[in-house]
């Protein structure tokens, strides 16, 4: 537990990619990792989403790369961390009750897929990822793939027909959808198509900081209207156009999202280990108490608790799949 006593849910980090590129690192306490077990415990992080992201140096994304990072999660995060209390993997709605009612020494991990390039257009691979523990899928990184255009793709296209099939299958299985990195047209197509609330795991307000990766007001309102979630991210250039960014610079983003009805739809999505430049005093997962203290100077404790923990946990408790169901049998093979 952190020194503030506040539990943290963080919906995005790239520790797995860093472990992939530096296999000598230990998840338990390697200082090169912004998110490691020691820093999670120091910061009170009881739920950490760990993204499977395929670095561009790997070349064209392949399913073997996805499986490789899932195996890395098993060995580095689940298994090798067991000596220090372990990391349990969140899979089912029923497990969220433990998160809500118990303050445990062992944190939980949530496996996410950042871009479906490595599924190679094969929707059966999506089912395999589900069986292997993946519970959140973002269709793209910044560029185009077989499912959709990313936000940096100049043509700005939306979902492909195969991408629309993927959205429908995710809805069927109970796989949660993430629109961070998705093109603006793709965002609206997914919003119209998805029957389940979706998230933007690590995006801020475009109105406050006009970076292309941030969300415009109508996008935030659309997520709120569907009872989705917006993950406040700590990427400095998504926060403020300045050489030095402080924790206080996150407050205008919070204000803007709340002004659009998102007070109970805001959560954290740090992007730790995916950035080399950091917000001052918010350099790694162990710094969450500093963020908590500043938020409590400006906002009611119940709101702060919701942003750092409650809103994310409520979403998972309502929208993760129920354990024991055979989801794949509910559809025809595609």
TrEMBL record:
Top-level lineage group: Bacteria
Protein name: Membrane dipeptidase
Species for this entry: Paenibacillus cucumis (ex Kampfer et al. 2016)
Pfam family, one: Peptidase_M19
């Amino acid at each position: 537990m952190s020194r503030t006593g506040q539990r943290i849910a963080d919906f995005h980090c790239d520790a797995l990619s860093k472990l992939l590129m530096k296999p000598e690192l230990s998840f338990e306490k390697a200082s090169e990792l912004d998110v490691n077990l020691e820093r999670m415990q120091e910061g009170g992080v009881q739920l950490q989403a760990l993204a499977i992201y395929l670095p561009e140096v790997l070349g064209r994304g392949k399913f073997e790369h996805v499986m490789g990072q899932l195996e890395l999660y098993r060995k580095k995060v689940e298994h090798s961390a067991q000596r220090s209390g372990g990391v349990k993997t969140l899979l089912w709605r029923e497990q969220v009750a433990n998160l809500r009612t118990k303050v445990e020494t062992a944190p939980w991990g949530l496996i996410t897929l950042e871009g479906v390039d490595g599924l190679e257009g094969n929707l059966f691979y999506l089912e395999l990822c589900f069986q292997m523990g993946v519970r959140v899928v973002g269709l793209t990184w910044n560029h185009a793939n077989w499912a959709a255009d990313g936000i940096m793709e100049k043509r700005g296209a939306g979902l492909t027909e195969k991408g629309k099939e993927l959205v429908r299958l995710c809805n069927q299985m109970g796989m949660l959808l993430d629109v961070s990195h998705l093109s603006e047209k793709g965002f609206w197509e997914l919003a119209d198509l998805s029957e389940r609330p979706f998230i933007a795991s690590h995006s801020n307000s475009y109105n406050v900081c006009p970076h292309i990766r941030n969300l415009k007001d109508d996008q935030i309102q659309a997520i709120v209207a569907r009872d989705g979630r917006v993950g406040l991210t700590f990427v400095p250039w998504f926060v403020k156009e300045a050489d030095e960014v402080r924790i206080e610079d996150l407050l205008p983003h919070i204000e803007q999202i709340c002004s659009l009805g998102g007070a109970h739809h805001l959560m954290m999505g740090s992007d730790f280990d995916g950035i080399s430049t950091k917000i001052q005093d918010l350099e790694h997962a162990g710094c969450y108490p500093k963020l908590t203290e500043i938020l409590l100077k400006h906002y009611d404790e119940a709101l702060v608790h919701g942003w750092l923990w409650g809103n994310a946990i409520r979403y998972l408790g309502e929208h993760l799949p129920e354990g024991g169901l055979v989801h794949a049998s509910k559809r025809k093979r595609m």
